[in-house]
Specification:
16 helices; 29% helix
């Protein structure tokens, strides 16, 4: 089995992006972020990459520009670790010629296309050069040092280009080899690969343009979505990515190409995704152009909030199509994401197993907001659900009353601070002994949910204490919270609503519902150590392209 150093390089490129995110927390002023942006509209190295390549990742900025984002010298440590045991010095040997692009691609799932001898993916790294002479010297220097370390060197001419390759056995027992091939291509790029075949194919892709990714109509369409100033991009051929990773896209999969772009702002970092459809899609979810007013009834103490409009149209929207493709591809499950996130909390509070799509979402045609409020003294958070009144609201509430009644709950109304509140309660008799040793009974009411009419909205809460917090949150609501306002301001408008997570408050909720998140926290520690909030949204009206974004707000 061959073990390529490109596994290490791939991790390094990813880590550079994480440093970009996490490093923002060390900045003394948001203005320090101004001017840090990509200098290229799209990856120039795409001409070396085949149309069949599963994935291509490109950093469109010189690493030196990211130096200002460091908190504790992470970038310098990365440079040192990458060149460990090579005898090379980044500042002396690489910095003088490295340009404004680093591209890494998985070019093929199996280099020799022979599954009988195992699968060895092809990896290609392209480094832009601003000093061709210096970069050629670096290629020769790198391989000369590897030869001195015991590597077997091979040189060949291919299509007029000098290719250098070697292989070095680094573990005699397991026969693991460290293989590398390199070439200086013209005055623009230096290429490295884990096998000479990968370099030959890269050269062929340039000389026969119909082979490279830039001539693909899908790529040409989706690359238009890269925003100005993007620091990095990742292009994914979804069917080939699935095959490479041993996953299975559903037969009904509509989206087959994806591009992810990373843009830095003075408030954090926006990772924007565009998915290109290969077939007709469902219409977009109804969009909002202003912050959802229903959020004024969600207290700022909420750890998670979901807001938008017209939940009744969600099942038949392109947003649901995207979620279904993603879920089925990864886990084979077709469960509704929002329902599965909110359901455990609602069921635990109400004592009934609601079908959220049919019992609630189906009649919400106006604005809505859902908030989960963590409570240190209890396992499940409390919830607030706000809906804008429409002609379907009375029937929807009556249906909930019927469900409560079927579960043995009674509907009661009472006044609290001159406000009429409706509650679903269950009465329970408790026996006790008075001071004269006489047995007596007290009637206790267990509240399973309350709701109240407020202006043009109906507000539901898990209990009276939470409802009291809602009614007293006029100057402390989520919509007036500075951190929340900064987060949604980074999301393009109009949009299809948003999911907002205050990381410190929602962390335990998410970990209990998404166990794999713990692994993500370990792998992406720089992000999660400094993450303040995370906002997810989708936007755009083009039915052929589904656009969404995740905004990471970081800082101390």
């Amino acid at each position: 089995m061959k073990q390529s150093l490109f596994f290490r390089s791939l991790a390094a490129i990813s880590l550079l992006l994480l440093i970009t995110i996490s490093g923002c927390s060390g900045l003394s002023s948001p203005n320090s972020l101004v001017g840090i942006s990509g200098t290229r509209k799209q990856p120039g190295a795409a001409i070396f990459v085949s149309q069949q390549a599963p994935v291509m990742i490109s950093m469109l900025v010189n690493p030196e520009k990211l130096q200002a984002l460091e908190r504790e010298g992470e970038l310098s440590k990365l440079k040192t670790s990458l060149l460990a045991n090579t005898g090379l010095d980044y500042k002396q040997d690489i910095q003088p010629w490295l340009g404004d692009e680093i591209t890494l691609a998985v070019t093929t799932q199996d280099i020799d296309r022979d599954s009988s001898n195992g699968q060895q993916p092809g990896y290609l790294m392209a480094l832009a050069t601003k000093n061709p002479e210096k970069s050629r010297e670096f290629v020769d220097l790198l391989f000369s040092k590897r030869t001195l370390a015991g590597a077997n060197l091979t040189t060949e001419q291919y299509e007029g280009i000098k290719l250098i390759s070697d292989s070095q056995e680094i573990d005699t027992k397991s026969k693991i080899q460290n293989s590398l091939a390199g070439a200086a291509i013209g005055d623009d790029f230096v290429l490295f690969a884990n096998d000479p075949k990968v370099l030959r194919e890269a050269i062929n892709n340039v000389q026969a343009p119909d082979l490279n990714i830039t001539t693909s109509s899908k790529y040409q369409e989706i690359v238009k979505q890269i925003p100005k100033g993007a620091l990095a991009t990742a292009f994914l051929n979804l069917p080939n990515v699935a095959q490479w990773q041993g996953l299975q896209l559903p037969e009904s999969a509509i989206y087959d190409s994806e591009i992810v772009s990373v843009v830095l702002s003075n408030k954090g970092l926006l990772a924007e995704t565009s998915l290109l459809a290969q077939a007709e899609t469902a219409p977009p979810q109804e969009q909002v152009s202003q912050p959802v007013e229903a959020l004024k009834y969600i207290p700022a103490s909420a750890g998670l909030a979901i807001a938008g409009t017209n939940l009744s149209s969600l099942p038949s929207s392109n947003l649901t199509q995207v979620w279904q493709q993603l879920k089925v591809a990864i886990s084979g499950s077709e469960k509704d994401v929002v329902s599965e996130l909110v359901r455990p909390v609602v069921d635990a509070q109400t004592g009934s197993e609601l079908n959220l799509k049919e019992d609630i979402f189906s009649w919400v045609q106006g604005e809505y907001a859902i908030g989960l409020l963590p409570r240190p003294e209890q396992a499940n958070p409390d919830f607030v659900f706000v809906v804008e009144k429409t002609e379907t609201t009375p029937a929807g509430i009556s249906h909930l009353d019927e469900i409560a009644s079927s579960k043995g709950l009674s509907l009661n109304t009472f006044d609290v601070d001159k406000q009429k509140i409706s509650a679903w309660t269950q009465l329970k008799a408790t026996k006790f002994t008075d001071t004269q040793q006489r047995e007596k009974y007290a009637i206790e009411a267990k509240v399973s949910g309350v709701h109240i009419s407020q202006g043009n909205y109906e507000v539901f809460a898990s209990n009276l204490e939470t409802m009291n917090e809602v009614l007293n949150a006029k100057n402390n609501s989520l919509i007036s919270d500075r951190q929340f306002k900064n987060s949604i301001a980074a999301i393009p408008q109009p949009n299809q609503g948003y999911v907002y997570l205050d990381w410190a408050k929602s962390r335990k909720i998410l970990e209990s519902q998404i166990p794999i998140l713990r692994l993500a926290e370990i792998l992406a520690k720089p992000i999660f150590e400094n993450l303040r909030s995370l906002t997810i949204s989708s936007y755009g009206s083009d039915t052929a392209i589904f656009k969404s974004g995740v905004f990471f707000q970081v800082g101390k």
